[in-house]
Amino acid sequence: MHIGINGWFCSLPYTGIGQYTISLIKALSRLADNHLISVFIAPVDGIGNLPELPNVEYCTVDKKSRSNDVFDVLEFEFLLVKLASVREVDVLHTTYLSSSQLHGKDFKHVVTVHDLIPRVFKKYRGSYLRQFYLWHSERTVKNADLIITDSAHSQLDIDKYLGIGQAAVKVIPIAADEVFTNKTEENRFAEIKKKYSLPDDYIFYIGGFDYRKNVATLLEAFAKARRSGIKEKLVLAGKFSPSVKQLARGLVENIPQIVDALRIDDFVTMAGMVPQEDLPYLYKMARLFVYPSLYEGFGLPPLEAMSCGTPVLASQSSSIPEIIDRDELLFDPCDAQRLAEKICWLLSDDTLRKSVVDWGLDRAKTFSWPDTARETLDLYQSLCGGSVPKKRIGGRTR
């Protein structure tokens, strides 16, 4: 079987879709001994930072620019489908909600719909041009031969908002990257602590600062917990560089302003962007990881934290309880007081923390990329009859 994968997000490895795409490609390459995997990328992305893998080739789509402009994405998708036809793929997998399912009749289409955030929150719909692209993509995804999603909650949303019945959408949970389960190097902990100016004892958060991430509630709860006597500080990781327009629309929370208003400046560290290879160290040094999100299609950070042996408190919203299926570790994301109480409760009892750590490590093992890749490959084969490649094309890029 010749598998084609839309690699638009391969150059954005710190996004959720980027992580999904790269992790899926790596996991498939270990399983697909008898299959060829062609990953289609924009030429300006290059292949220098992409993993060299068995049975995987990177094919450049013939276009001159690479941006997140709607017309640029549409051009890439149109040219990708033409190239996929030329390369004679049996199945093309687009790893995000896109419009490419309109084109191409000589191979099967698979699309992963991770979430429907713009449908749930109006402020994420963007410009009229962006709204047109979303509308167009929602229409054309119905023409896909198969739809995959990460969680049962997203499956319900796809039914609710797009009218695509649950029977037509396959739920395949994803997993934390192997970097979070690999052994860490003891001599790097001091280096990482100095690099990010980390305090001795801290509560950790990573996951973005836009509206749905709900960091304002975490800050309010942290301020209450400090007043109740906890000594830990708070470390927030991730890029924070919103535009004036984003702040004005309420799309991004004004974190420094909230911190200042709560008078917790001395207890909050903004660590900035953290490369994936450093993240396990920040997780492991944390006393607690808190994830207050209002909405997730899946929600990888809590799973990453558990894989690193860090106790987790997480929002009870959307798909998150499918990962954290333990009621006492969940909280109402709109109730800062209750979250503060849970923070104090978990930090005050080392025996309890140890039991939560052990539970989390066991729970995290139930999610794995080999399982995700196997289920995905089985679906490809069910569509294509398990065919072998028509012809094998050598080389990493064309």
Q: Notable features of this structure?
A:
single chain, 398 residues, alpha/beta, Rossmann fold, seven-stranded parallel beta sheet, six-stranded parallel beta sheet, 14% strand, globular, disordered C terminus
Quick structural overview:
This protein has 14 helices and 13 strands. With 398 residues, it is of the alpha/beta class. β11, α11 and β12 form a beta-alpha-beta unit.
Explain what you see.
The chain has 14 helices and 13 strands. The protein is of the alpha/beta class and 398 residues long. It folds into two domains: 2-175 and 368-384, Glycogen Phosphorylase B (Rossmann fold, 3-Layer(aba) Sandwich), CATH 3.40.50.2000; 178-364, 3-Layer(aba) Sandwich (Rossmann fold). Strands 3-2-1-4-5-6-7 form a seven-stranded parallel sheet, with helices on both faces. Helix 7 runs parallel beside helix 9, helix 7 crosses helix 12 (336-347) and helix 11 (300-307) crosses helix 13. Residues 388-398 have low confidence and may be disordered.
